[in-house]
Amino acid sequence: MNIVYTVLIVIILLFVLAYWTRRRFGVLGLALCAGYLLSGMWTEQVTPYIQKAGLVVVAPPLSSIVAALLILLPAVLLLFSGPTYSKKLQRIIGAAFFALLAAAFLLAPLGNSMSLDDMGTFYYNLLADNKTVVITAAIVYALFDILTLKTPKLKEK
Predict the structure, then answer these.
(1) Pick from 8, 29, 57, 78: CA 20 to 30 A from residue 146's CA?
(2) Residue 23's beta-bridge partner residues?
């Protein structure tokens, strides 16, 4: 499958998941950052353990799958609890930033696991060249989202 279609499918699935769960992007975005750091530190150490457990994958390299799972795992866990949006526009913006940030972080594992044709190489290089801008903008928005988060006040009984 072409990398362009794969990235689009990932973006759409993550957008729908984040929109449906109504979770705030600030928490999810910082969880993606944590997953990206964990993936960079632990992919090489975790992959041999998974191979020894008997999981054999030929088509995408196992290390790419492990890296992608480590990137997404903290954010996916936080999709089930945490602060939520109440307005539709906020949900759309938060879900879009979540999907774009996840796609930017997953670009390297996806690129390593797929063969690129001419069109795929062009779009992959375009995404890779703008990766730092997307990540920076998403992290800034995540921090802004966290700073504007208002916790509900407890009512005195």
Answers:
(1) 8
(2) 84
Query: Model confidence over 50-88: pLDDT tens digits?
Result: 888 888 777 778 888 899 999 999 999 999 988 899 899
The span from the CA of 105 to the CA of 52, in Å, is 27
**Cα 14 to chain centroid, rounded:** 8
Nearest to 132 by CA among 107, 110, 95, 114: 107
Tokens encoding 152: 């509900």
By CB atoms closer than 10 A (0-12, 13-18, 19+), residue 142 is: buried
